[in-house]
Amino acid sequence: MNIMLFHSSYGLRPAVESAAERLRAAGHEVWTPDLYEGRVFDAIEDGRAYKAEVGVDELLKRAIQASAPHSERGLVYAGFSLGAAVAQTLAFGDEKARGLLLLHGTSDIAEGATVDELPVQLHVADPDASEPHDWLTAWYLQMGKAGADVEVHRYPGAGHLYTDPDLADYDDQAAEQTWRAALAFLETL
Asked: Which of 42, 54, 62, 91 has the largest CB neighbor count within 10 A?
């Protein structure tokens, strides 16, 4: 599978490269575009401030430019938190998208947006202040209405970015469960 993997608001951290290596070891081709152009942040507030400074439109432009040379292959879009939101947006705009793997985040769904049975797998902490239950319920219903085939995995007690071993949110057990499920999901595409 060809996978476009987007980083979180922290930037292109070692955990993103480690995730890409895990996916490559399973036989997938993976790209990890750097939407922050080399900037990496230790505090989420700093990453969010940079995102606000650059603007969402510019970040999406960078993501589209990184994905465009590979989209003819039929990509699986994937991402961590902010990167998941970017991945979701791009998957909805790419009729050749093969799947959507969301780690720690979702995004708004444009009114009237449709996909043709797009396979989607979401992994989130439970609870997660960034992805509250009422938001996720509405998101799930909207995804179904748009035509996506959605599977949600929740991890009680985990922190928001629980797959990043360099952050306080890290949860080894939840991270391993996530990667087992994600790899199995990718095998079905």
From this structure: 91
Q: Where are the alpha helices (DSSP H) in the chain?
A: 14-25, 44-54, 56-67, 82-93, 133-146, 172-187
Q: Which CATH class is domain 2-187?
A: alpha beta
Name, in order, each residue with C-beta under 8 angstroms of 187's C-beta and a sequence gap of 6 or more: none
Q: Where are the domains of the chain?
A: 2-187
- Please check whether residue 13 is in contact with residue 40, taking contact to mean a CB–CB distance below 8 angstroms: yes
Gap between the Cα atoms of 50 and 72, Å rounded: 31
Does residue 93 contact residue 110 with C-beta atoms inside 8 Å?
Answer: no
pLDDT digits 0-9 by tens, 140-170:
999 999 999 999 999 999 999 999 999 999 9
pLDDT band at residue 29 under the 50/70/90 scheme: very high
Distances (CA, A) of 172 to 128, 159, 168, 169: 17, 11, 11, 10
Pairing of strands 29-31, 2-6: parallel
Kindly report, residue by residue over 35-53, the tens digit of the pLDDT.
999 999 999 999 999 999 9
